[in-house]
Amino acid sequence: MEDVNDVLLVESNNENVADNMNKIEDETLGQNGLIVPEVGMMFNNETDMFEIYKRYAYDIGFPVRRRNSKKWDDGILRYVTFTYNREGRRGGNASRSLKPKSISQTDCKARISASSDNHGRWRINIVHLDHNHETSPSKSRLHRCNRELNVNVKRKLEVNDVVGILLHKSYNFAVAQVCGYENMMCIEKDCRNYIKQVRRLRLGEGDATTIQSYFSKMQAKCSRFYFSIDLDDESQLRNVF
Fold it and tell me: DSSP assignment of 57-84, as one string?
């Protein structure tokens, strides 16, 4: 039977987490309601913690990612660090390459590190807010961690693709519906990647070749039979007429 004192301790800890979250909202709100990460902040789970940091990063104007994480022997995640998306040192062997790659790392130290206890609650232990580069809130929506395709955009992209409307026209139509590029939460590349994925699901691997072969045989049997296959830059099937 579970000890009464242990139960009371768990309930007390849960109340402390709730009180701490209320304190976060009351004492760490910056301008425009921005919650600034601080050492000692407690969260009920990792997702809530990341969303707070992601929201802060969005308002400041820099992309974030999970830098590293660590699990204990029980397989449960116990430690995680979220950093600026381009943190890290610049490569030192670029001059040796015939075609050096574009290097975007800035060695920025902006990050938060946190650990979880046995009850799954997370505490921020390390906070670095300073950046060694410029940040731009106006560009936050374009960062990969913030871009997304909503259900309506996905549905219209799929319908337009089936009837043969070019993707850039579909994207421009979506832009017009939200009254400008500044209101789009995705870029044209995201739409193009989504349609490629839909086409792969629509036609399995090798189906395009099979269809083309079948139509060629039909044309050989009947000179009046006509077909035209629309292929993209990667020779993948778009539409069949």
Answer: HHHHT--EEEEEEEE-TTS-EEEEEEEE
